[in-house]
Amino acid sequence: xxxxxxxxxxxxKRGLSPQITLIPFKSQRxxxxxxxxxxxxxxxxxxxxxSLIKTTLDSDDRFALRNSAFPWDxxxxxxxxxxxxxAQLVLEWKLEKMLKENERDYDQYLxxxxxxxxxxxxxxxxxxxxxxxxxxxxxxxxxxxxxxHACLCLNDAITAFSxxxxxxxxxxxxxxxxTYETFIIGFSSLGNAVAMKSWYxxxxxxxxxxxxxxxxxxxxxxxxSGDFDGAEKFYEEIRSIGIxxxxxxxxxxxxxxxxxxxxxxxxxxxxxxxxxxxxxSVKMAKKIVCLYSEYGKVEEMEELLSTVVESGQVVEVMLQxxxxxxxxxxxxxxxxxxxxxxxxxxxxxxxxxxxxxVEKVICCYFRKxxxxxxxIFLEHIKGSHKLSKSTYDLLIAGYRRxxxxxxxxxxxxxMELSGVL
Length: 421
Description:
Among the domains are: 1-175, Serine Threonine Protein Phosphatase 5, Tetratricopeptide repeat; 387-421. It is 69% helix and 0% strand. The protein is built from 23 helices and no strands.
């Protein structure tokens, strides 16, 4: 056990450099990043000086570590809002409490190391590890994997490789499937396809099978690095062994096709997705709509709309396509088609969600000098869409430029009544 601790100290000295580039590790093992400003304890921690962080955490019995009332989840979610020093003190406090209570649950230590990764604090993760050993808790492969994850959060490959070597030389915590997966996920997140593929080969050579998670990481990493052929190769591989690709895999493939302007392949991918009864994600809808819009593919966009309506996609997906069509027609100054598309969307019970979409249509009316038709359009959307200040400003500028003082006065009055002015 002491040998492990000495090895880790050596690793830390060699691998942790103040010049290291801090690159966040966006793996599939995500943490909650929602702000928790409503949490009273977090508010206190934000206000007190660093010297009082631990005292504040200890100040109330109801915040005891094992008390179910302790707002740990909310506090963890708020860690990013704290300074790095305060975040470290919070995690140190948790470790001290765990050791004082003689905590033996490995998951508690794994979670703490993961939090160190979230706050990009590898030295503290190392400290958690060595503290476990000092208290007689033998390391396991899972603990090492959590430490590897913390290192890869900072793109600290040197330390990660050194830890892997320690695992290889050990008897009780040799690299397992998750070890290789951690490296694959880490390098995938960084878009380092070469290193990612090398660890994939190493995983297979070690006798471990690829999982859905493995392929998700491989395809994502290939797309990030622009290795589109590699992404397609892994996609074919996953299909050949009978694993059903998940939403993230298909989103990444679609992104690859869109970046390459491969319209036919993008269309076929969506069709294959729908043929097996799967739903298109909002992210996928945005990608394909953006591609079609960029190249003015009106007919393809209309066909996409028919497809999503017939297949009963969720409202957000249908709205993405409707809005894309409306924006396209407005940009092309095809006012008749834009009006028809707006009416079609409203009849389906959908409404504008974005002020920018409304403003593109308004600009089309102004370019066509179709002021009476603009009045009708505004009347139609009044019940389902509240005009923003930017939209009112656009109307004021347009009417002023056209010299339509009566309409200008009407818009200003509407602004006053709606409380925008």
